[in-house]
Amino acid sequence: MREDIASIRKEYTKDTLDIKSVHRDPISQFENWFDEALKSGIVEPNAMTLATVDQAGSPLQRTVLLKKIARKAFIFFSNYNSRKALHIDANAHVSLLFPWYQLERQVIICGIASKISTEETKEYFQSRPRGSQLGAWVSEQSTIIEGRNVLEDKLRELENKYSNIPIPVPPHWGGYEVVPSTIEFWQGGTNRLHDRILYTKNGNDWGIDRLSP
Q: Cα 188 to the chain's mean position, in Å?
């Protein structure tokens, strides 16, 4: 490790965030920020870190992609036999983090994850590139394999099997929606006095508070 790692620092000066100017609905506020992230040219602005915990309470994080916002929920897709899926089965409380470093922003979402309908999963699956559809069949996500050749051999087998017919949705694959209970918007500030606005779900309404950095 480099000796000067502690000296790495950046002054945040791009923007400010005021509780009087944010949207009263956090989903609308998120959509505003997401549009700005999209227009900024950030690579994969829909990439988000998903945090789950297993049955023993041990946490695990990985990057997944936001694919849709519907019903005031954040939707992503995955293998239902994966570690993340097993964690969600045991404990549906999850956290999402959007790290938009170039804009000196991040959004932290905490909520409950649950599976979406098979009809909605099918609709999205059919919109995916054919290679991605085959990939969902190839991967037994999180399992140990001997080498990449295992995946490539199975891919060739499936390419032949589905060469002239539509690819069906794997029974072990589908979507999750995360219904938020809290959403925090973080904007970097000068002298480490960052702006933090926290929305907390109260029934059908949202409370809004400013947090100390």
A: 21
Q: Phi and psi dihedrals of 125, rounded to 5?
A: -55, -40
Distance of CA 1 to CAs 4, 8, 10, 19, Å? 9, 13, 19, 40
Element (H, E) at 89: helix 83-90
- In 117-177, which residue ranges form alpha helices assigned H by DSSP? 118-127, 130-138, 148-161
Q: Which residues are catalytic?
A: 192
Q: Rounded to an integer, what distance in angstroms lies between the CA atom of residue 123 and that of residue 125?
A: 6
C-alpha to C-alpha distance for 23 and 39, rounded to whole angstroms: 20
Q: What pLDDT digit, counting tens, does each position of 12-64 carry?
A: 999 999 999 999 999 999 999 999 999 999 999 999 999 999 999 999 999 99
